[in-house]
Amino acid sequence: MKAVRILERVLTALPMSILMLLLVFAFVRLLPGDPVDIMMGQAGNVSQAEIDALRRELHLDRPLAEQLSIFVRGLLRGDLGYSFREQRPVAAIIGEAFPATVELALAGLTFALLVGLPIGVVSAVKRNSWFDRLAMGFSFLGISMPAFWLGIMAMMLFSVHLGWTPVQGRLSAGLVPPDLTGFYVLDALLARDWALLKDALRHLVLPAVTLGAELTAIIARVTRSSMLEALHMDYVTAARSRGVPEWQVVLRHALRNALIPTVTVTGLQLGVLLGGNMIVETVFGWPGLGRLVVGAIFARDYALVQGAVMLYALTFLLANLLVDILYTQLNPKLEL
């Protein structure tokens, strides 16, 4: 029964995916600027014949409906198109850059969960204490600070002045990761290359903290709010009346139900971390998909922008599906 409901959710998301594809296809082409003019402008003096030939090669001389038809037919074959900016297939470009983006997003999510959840739980248990007031004050700062400002300030302090972390990139020059998964931390663990692991973590920690700072504050506040409500529920009172130790009351009874709103926020924010980390990747020179898309937008590289946005949309759909599945694990009474 659960599998059927999950399938229903997936099928329901298909019309939204198609609508998203049409909107992206149209809006990208409505942006001011001609990709052929941009590309030829970088090449110097060119003839009108060369401009027309490139326009035909990119199918930009055809009506929008025909361009869309060409793109959809290629998509059904697994072909996302050809990037005129990178001079390579879009699928290959995304395949190279996406692991870096996923690694950064997962690191930011891990930091947010490891820090935000305990802060939220302790703040609820010690309501109105000095810890609660201090933690909620810092959470306001985490929500209000822009990622680009926080990244620059962190880079100036920890990289430039203290020299604890590198300024940018994923690895130091001269280090070559094994060609395994594309996730440098995981590859270093699999290869048992501890020098590579240390260097990869030094490059990862500052962008991950910058990316996860806002989510840490959100998780802390949502967890605190839901925990305060759960701690006053009847089943918590009944557990205490049976002499259950307080730590079990908090962790096994209250936290399990309080996690439901936190799972919702975290699942939605996972898509934001993957799709909204362009600023962080640009600030830290992180060679991920977000930084690549920024350049593609300015260059009007239609194929690359469309492929990346489709991947981001798929990430949001999968994140929502994962939230639905986790709901039933946290509370079996909930229906998908």
Give the topology, please.
Elements: H1 2-30, H2 35-43, H3 48-57, H4 64-76, E1 82-83, E2 88-89, H5 90-125, H6 130-144, H7 147-161, H8 184-191, H9 194-230, H10 234-241, H11 246-275, H12 278-283, H13 289-298, H14 302-330
Antiparallel strand pairs: 1-2
Helix pairs in contact: 1-14, 5-6, 5-9, 5-11, 5-14, 6-9, 7-9, 8-9, 9-11, 10-11, 11-14, 13-14
Which key features would you list for this structure?
336 residues, mainly alpha, MetI-like fold, two-stranded antiparallel sheet, MetI-like, transmembrane, transmembrane helix, transport, cell membrane
| Rg result | 24 Å
Mean pLDDT: 79
CATH topology of the largest domain: MetI-like fold
How many β-strand stretches? Answer: 2
Distance between the termini: 10 Å
Q: Quote the beta fraction.
A: under 5%
Question: What would you call the shape?
Answer: globular
CATH architecture of the largest domain: Orthogonal Bundle
